[in-house]
# Entry
Amino acid sequence: MSLAIPLLLAADAACEPVKLSDWHNLLAVIWDFLSLSLFSLGGGNTLLAEYHSIAVHKYRWITSNQFADIYALAEAAPGPSSMIVGLLGMGAAWREGPLWALLSGIAAEAAILLPSTLVMVVASLSWSRFKDSPWRVAFERGMGPITLGILFAVGLKILQTADHTPLAYGVSVLVCFLMLRTKISPLWFMGLAGVLGGLGWISRY
# Structure
């Protein structure tokens, strides 16, 4: 019995979210996003599974349901898909207060955007020189299926994160079919899903 109490305390400590008021942890978080930045050249959504792993499992900033909500906000708002990182940064430090959350959100967004942006600028300036090179054609053709495969995996991750009822899965499959077979604006689907969620017909809990 005497050994059980320290073990329970250790388990509780292991479940505590990382606090960004610790500068060492903040720098570690910034480094994580800096490291991921160079792999986001296919778009911010290609790293969504890793964002989920970092925010939900590694640092325990937020829950899977909160991650799904943040992803929906990032996709609904105008701007690049990478803006989800800023929202994750804010969610990570929200317990420390709104000002700290804003600062950490800006730091996370800068960390994910700056390296990849610099690489893309340099690549764009020199890429046109190889417009007739077979290496460029082979590279572009090879990257296409890879990027599509990653985006497909991201879609499955979001499906697993956001949907937990048969109706929710059914709506997701129907929307996917209509998106592929029709030219209906995605905004209509987002609005309809919002109405269904507001009425309580679709629940993730």
